[in-house]
């Protein structure tokens, strides 16, 4: 489209004023005139326009707008915010934001609502949940929430209510690498991208799915330190564009490349023998397994030349230990996520980059850091304990197979809510309480989610907008935005201890409440008020710091407080600097490291390349091995999705500024494929398979494999309450089948589709 002043103004109207017709009950627009009040002095806080939650500094400007900048105290974040973070004010006073509790007065999903007061909302919820509890048991109500600070208070309510069924979004996003790390290391691992000299990447697109600290770390490694970046990904993404080498790998075959790298490291004698001998269990079995996974074998599966796989592996080993294979966040999705992530971790372990600069490391919270320092170098935070919480005898609904046991305490298998609701597996669900989560977009098979919500007796949604999922709720509870609320202190320790805190910047607009207060007040209506003994957020904060008011004030004032120097246990220069700062520090080993103190929370106390525990919970999977997967029919194209820099999954499509930046998601199609289908850029197309059908438009580009199509996720909402996002683009979840990956419990996000020009 030709861009001139007229079309620009027209576009702005489409994202803002043009939606004035969509006045919703309980929205800011329904309030009439609203004023903005708040601090004109900078307040240190935490962003929430995505899950990274960057430290920010915000203030009200002339009573008309909110300035949102990065917090300069948080050095790794660069004192900056991304496009999403900068648009927080646009969400704050968006006319479509809901600021009053609502009651559904039509059919579910029909879009008919009535404003009610908080007390009435709590009373309706309490009556219905207690009725379900009395008739079917507390376990028949599921509670789900976006991960992070938003989930803790809701899950505390669930426990007080008596339900074990609490779920985060883990199985729709990060569970793969978390479960694999727990199996191999006993805990989550972190990346030291900023100090890496060589990075192998399997589609972890930090230049679009932005994590400010990690994104800046990789930028610095490439720009300032000359690190080489090699990317294996089916499309020419932004991270592929910034790579030294890009290979358009066949979707779902990442595992073969990772195993071929491991094969080459071992066969060509490139691995760190001393490290493996001291810290690794199961190496012999793993080495025997990977003998067959040659680069030539991988080439036949992945379309990546064997000579390149071998050369890249040698380059990677030469740069080790200051090199890493990025274990990703989400990449080319496959049912073999568990094996893929483990193979990637194994490629790191073999070069001995654990607790070394540019490699992988484990977080140093205050308790660990202080033990090495021999003194209280950093304060520790306390967690409020509540006595006599109800004992829950019922099993979780996802406890149907022991292979998923590593996920039960790490967010659970979110999509089992559908199984329990529709098929009573393992028992029938009757209620669902959800907070800031949108399964209609993030889960797969949207039609099945609709059936679930139509069948349930009662649904509560707490959010900022009436999301596609909240549109099916019986009661909608409006949460305050992150600029309108205070929260607990958060531990953000990395190589050294660090804390930050969210603080209120502006006065509440309308009649919203922070979610911690919502769940506390609802608990009182449910008869569980005694389990929420704190009367304010400041009470909780003071408990966290053991009544150390000076410490609390410092964290609030600075917004980001870190202690000591970065410490990696096997990096001599870091250990020497650490010992110089702390006279009572543990004595280093002969090699001037703390390597002898390194241990792992696994059955063997070592990194497990082969695991008896995994074999017991998932027979046949004790050793990392290749398993072929089939994700499409022969006459279909691979359909993959990914994140874009101006949106957070499906959470921001209705935010005015971000909707103006991007409101649609064209389907990427290779020119050869497009020519065969007689499709040109901009053509209206139908994308369909056995799961569903969507209409969108085409973007013909050589930046995608001929056998693959791609769309950014989060678009195509189907509820009229999101007036800016409704009907804009392709709804990916409507095309993805309901398939759960072994061990990790991940929802499968790769499938096959057909395309037809409309």
Give a short synopsis of this structure.
With 758 residues, the protein is of the alpha/beta class. The chain contains 26 helices and 27 strands. Helix 13 crosses helix 14 and helix 17 crosses helix 19.
Question: Which features characterize this protein?
Answer:
27 strands; alpha/beta; 758 residues; six-stranded mixed beta sheet; single chain; globular; 26 helices
Describe the model:
- The strands form seven sheets. The chain has a seven-stranded mixed beta sheet with strand order 5-4-17-16-15-6-7, covered by helices on one side.
- The longest helix has 19 residues.
- It has 758 residues and is an alpha/beta fold.
Nearest-integer average pLDDT = 94
Q: What are the segments in which pLDDT stays under 50 over at least 5 consecutive residues?
A: 1-21
Radius of gyration: 26 Å
Tally of separate helices: 26
State the total count of DSSP E strands: 27
Structural class: alpha/beta
Largest sheet properties = 7 strands, mixed
Strand content: 5-15%
Assembly context of the chains? single chain
